[in-house]
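Quick one:
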Amino acid sequence: MLAATALIIFVVEAQIPVPVPIPGVKLGLANVITVYAMFIIALSITGRAIIQAYG
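Output:
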């Protein structure tokens, strides 16, 4: 689900003209979804470790 959201944001972002005339420069809006996914996974792993340690 998050991968599909990031892909859609990437495609939409590709249609937005960037004001900086440097080749390869993008806004990187799809990276927000990647960081969110990493945060959620880290919380999940941390939660499991705490449950295993004290549960």
